[in-house]
Amino acid sequence: MSKNILLCLGTVLLxxxxxxxxxxxxxxxxxxxxxxxxxxxxHDEHLGYTxxxxxxxxxxxxxxDGSICYNVTYTTDEHGRRIVPQTEGxxxxxxxxxxxxxxxxxxxxxxxxxxxxxxxxxxxxxxxVHGYGPSHALAQIDAxxxxxxxxxxxxxxxxxxxxxxNTLAWWLYDSPYxxxxxxxxxxxxxxxxxxxxxxxxxERFLWVKERSNFLQVANVNLxxxxxxxxxxxxxxxxxAAKVSYEAQTNGTFIVVxxxxxxxxxxxxxxxxxxxxxxxxxxxxxxxxxxxxTDDKIIPCDNHPNGVLNKELAALIAxxxxxxxxxxxx
Length: 329
Fold this sequence. Notes:
- By secondary structure, the protein is an alpha/beta fold.
- It has two domains: 1-27; 85-328, SGNH hydrolase (Rossmann fold, 3-Layer(aba) Sandwich).
- The protein has 13 helices and twelve strands.
- A hairpin with a 2-residue loop joins strand 9 (176-181) and strand 10 (184-190).
- Helix 3 packs parallel to helix 12 (306-317), helix 4 packs parallel to helix 9 and helix 9 packs across helix 11.
- It starts with a helix and ends with a helix.
């Protein structure tokens, strides 16, 4: 009996060893190098991290052969918001989101912020920060926002990971933790303080995954898949952001389905969110089917480039919903 157990154990270990060795030939290694730090952030008790205030930071990303992917300078104002050259506009627009709305890897004149300001025209205040998600937007709005005509949250598929704090959003464990109890949205500090055991389990798993070729090649994460509950809490967070924003201002809070939904082909997730937002009466602009091809991304980075941002800003400025906001202002 004991010999059979040992034989089975040895077979399993041998199989795992073979899988690890085989995966070693297949594992994808990052071929980019941070010549200078890509991000300039400070710890924040409320949001996890924020951009440094009144700062200029140059980020340089290169390929393995030394050729430059991008070399850009980000500038922030006294509130820690990215600023770009703008002229005076009749409207004031706020934008929220992650790196897509922030303009990661882009010079000022290639950002969504810049093109929106030109097309509307409007003063555009950018609350987006690389790696942020819906929970950050809600926390930012709850902390108070200026009078404005509208707020746009640029929504991508990865944002659900950032709301639920799974292992695909490993950098956010000090960020806001929201959850639902009987359809009531609550916040309990951060992922690290509000659900400490699960967060520690995720961090231990990530430590193992970093050392396992097989787990990397198989792209194993915890939890293993997204659930309906993940969709519900993400929609509830953005619905709460809408309520908070519209209670503070005379403006309209709008969720923008970014063309990233087209590039990732997440049709099931898209359908689930359209139903969830409708149930919460969240206003939506939908560009999920807009072409997002390789000529519209930053080489070796995969964030949108200035071509897509210019096209998207023009679409938003000409949208009947946005045009109606102009007439009302």
